[in-house]
Sequence to fold (137 residues):
Amino acid sequence: MKHILKSFAVFALAISLTNCGEKKETDAYGNPVEEKTEATTETTVDPLFTKGQELFEGKGTCTACHKPDTKVIGPAIKDIAKIYKEKGASIAAFINEEGEPIVDPTQYETMKTNFAITKAMTAEERKALEIYMMSFE
Fold:
């Protein structure tokens, strides 16, 4: 009986010593698994995108006729972006009156009234508008 109690005491001591240490995770094969850390990914916004959004909603007066998903006076931005992507065309060129209307030619005369605003923009501003509009899907 003493022998059983000694064996039990040694066994209990051995278990408590192995369980008191730092626990490490292991895979199904007993190999240690490194602790998972969440990687933080920073998303950076293209400054031209931000500038394009500001122009679209402000000085460009584009929101008077264009909405993201709905045709108002002019086509929805997502429809404009889709067609320009499909045709490989440039919105920046169009708003500088260097391209033909390809989305809704029936609205061209209305759009021409805004060319005074868009042609007064710098090439970078027109490119920023294009980047913003082409971001819609």
